Amino acid sequence: MKFTINRAAFIGQLNNVLRAVSSKSTIPILTGLKLVVDNNEVVLTGSDADISIETTLSGADGQYQLTVEEPGAIVLPARFFSDIVKKLPDQQVTIAVTDGFQAQIMSGTAEFVINGQDANNYPHLPEIDTAASFEVAADLFADVIRQTQIAVSHQESRPILTGIHVSLADGILTAVATDSHRLSQRKVRLENVGERQVDVVIPGTSLTELSRMIGDVKDPVKIQVTDNQALFVFGNTRFYSRLLEGNYPDTSRLIPDTSETTVELDASAFLAAIERASLLSHQSRNNVVKLTVDPQAGLAKVSGNSADIGNVEENIATDRMEGSDLEISFNPDFMGDALKSFGQAKIILSFTTALRPFTLVPTEDSDQFVQLITPVRTY
Amino acid sequence: MKFTINRAAFIGQLNNVLRAVSSKSTIPILTGLKLVVDNNEVVLTGSDADISIETTLSGADGQYQLTVEEPGAIVLPARFFSDIVKKLPDQQVTIAVTDGFQAQIMSGTAEFVINGQDANNYPHLPEIDTAASFEVAADLFADVIRQTQIAVSHQESRPILTGIHVSLADGILTAVATDSHRLSQRKVRLENVGERQVDVVIPGTSLTELSRMIGDVKDPVKIQVTDNQALFVFGNTRFYSRLLEGNYPDTSRLIPDTSETTVELDASAFLAAIERASLLSHQSRNNVVKLTVDPQAGLAKVSGNSADIGNVEENIATDRMEGSDLEISFNPDFMGDALKSFGQAKIILSFTTALRPFTLVPTEDSDQFVQLITPVRTY
């Protein structure tokens, strides 16, 4: 194996594949990066058993300035190899396998020799046929993940809740996550998916990693699922994730369809007030912030306190308030995560009683996106 | 106590004073920030007992837009107070002491009430007369600290070596630090200091903190020392540091005045090669990099290795080499720190034997600045 490549372009692809590589792994070879060199391409693979990322660097793509002298394959220590490549002196780097599983890395007058492993010992990635895949615009799919991953559970006690429930039916893609204290749901209408049906639970960590990679991808992401894997194809990259086994709870009945009190306001201004109040609630034992709404008097107020340190009170600006008086307490971090998912938008908060879950929806496309939060009982 | 001030200008000064405040302190009141409000100024004080910083915000300085309604004083929890001020909604903030030691912080519609402490319980800063102080250009003094603090010891076994030895004699300011493996010495000629003599050891941590504050100060820093304190005055800020007690070892005889081998090269290019070699040495038990010099053959080479991972070898570019052949091993982190202190300059490395300390000096002003490193015996 021997090839020469443009170092900057190579580093860009290395960084992508490294997202899947964990520096500690119960399977030692997975701390490595697999390089497979063909006549006119280099394929990089990284995996932590949950996620696998495979990127193809083609000689046809001029940015790589790729010259292959000899095909071959090797597994090199991933972090260490990438640290070396990043620090090399020259614009080009030549990588060659010499005796056995030793690799030579040459750039300018610097020459590294590092110990690798036999590429035949690297686990095989699942073979997935992408002929029947469906497509979603990359930036839209990244938004869907960003808006729902906040409610993914980090508790291993109910493993199924550490995933995002992704389904496709009647041309509508739905993503739902809940940790049983809050819930995020986003729907997107897809074109050209025909009668295609999908119903899978994908680990939240996989999708969060994926969303970081596709945020500025121009082409749509091709998605294909099998019994136990999901595959996302974009640009020259294939991103594999295992699926979670088990049935996701039925979340459709959790979202209330009536309300007693509604408040319309600016998400980002309200977020700033919540963050101020949380400065105090974070210092107290039960991290709770209170919202008091009096639609008749036109008053809405956020307050927080910590017995040791002090208290805070702030009147908040609203665009519209309707319904009954209300005093409701909640975790300001849940509220903050939900508000951030709306960006600069105007939103509607809908409450039933002080002890029932309440919802946040954008004023536009309010049936496409909902954040639900369970309040905290403070007495 | 009650005053209103421009929030952005206030935050700038808060950040400066916070440098002295540690969030954990054996003296609880030192986790606080003292505010003293006079008719037309606010004085902020922070201290961790080693360093104290006092900043005066004068109403005469328009950027503060200061209005004092009522003089007074209070101590407020430092980090928490500054977090609040940073998150407030309005351009202005009003701070008032209400009942007892409670402070009200108002900005826009947000109103915080936080518990403070009696300012009379805050330790008094030493009273130091600055009439006889001497002056050093701020950016120059920041350089002197930056160039010598790398050799300060972090071992409490010899406390005196955790300081920088600062002396002034015959119009020359000398700063020296050594951890007994390496030594940094910088000399600067000062104007208008007459017969002034100074000989003190200032904690390295104090000077490093000071250097971060004065890097972009225009006016010179006024320096005054007493038996147990040093005071640095710049702009509207007074920076106090305790001194270390005891005699600093005589370092003047440690710097060799002859050499067998000299190499002249570019500090930043050599640094890059050392950092590449250290990628491997950092993976081995005895973090060592080897330099091989053969002036007759015109060859200089850096190499590193780790039994587990591999090895690296790199020919380095030199401007001039003279003297005997040499093979010398050293800690690449010590070499890296020393090389960084020269920036982009050309430097001269001077060696006697493979087991004796060697020096690095800039080709210009070579008698003003020296870095010394003790090699590592590898056999």
TrEMBL record, chains A, B:
Q: Which domain of life is it from?
A: Bacteria
- The reply on keyword Cytoplasm is yes
InterPro entries linked: DNA_clamp_sf, DNA_polIII_beta, DNA_polIII_beta_C, DNA_polIII_beta_cen, DNA_polIII_beta_N
DNA polymerase III beta sliding clamp N-terminal domain mapped to chain residues:
1-126
Which GO biological process categories is it annotated with? DNA strand elongation involved in DNA replication
Q: Can you say where in the cell this protein is located? A: Cytoplasm
Give UniProt keywords alphabetically. Answer: Cytoplasm, DNA replication, DNA-binding, DNA-directed DNA polymerase, Nucleotidyltransferase, Transferase
DNA polymerase III beta sliding clamp C-terminal domain boundaries? 253-377
Molecular-function GO terms, alphabetical: 3'-5' exonuclease activity; DNA binding; DNA-directed DNA polymerase activity
Q: Which Gene3D superfamilies match?
A: 3.70.10.10, DNA Polymerase III, subunit A, domain 2 (3.10.150.10)
> Pfam families recorded for this chain?
DNA_pol3_beta, DNA_pol3_beta_2, DNA_pol3_beta_3
The record's annotation in SUPFAM superfamilies points to: DNA clamp
- Reported function: Confers DNA tethering and processivity to DNA polymerases and other proteins. Acts as a clamp, forming a ring around DNA (a reaction catalyzed by the clamp-loading complex) which diffuses in an ATP-independent manner freely and bidirectionally along dsDNA. Initially characterized for its ability to contact the catalytic subunit of DNA polymerase III (Pol III), a complex, multichain enzyme responsible for most of the replicative synthesis in bacteria; Pol III exhibits 3'-5' exonuclease proofreading activity.
- Similarity comment text for this entry: Belongs to the beta sliding clamp family.
Subunit composition and interactions: Forms a ring-shaped head-to-tail homodimer around DNA.
Indicate what this protein is called per its UniProt record: Beta sliding clamp
Species of the source: Limosilactobacillus fermentum
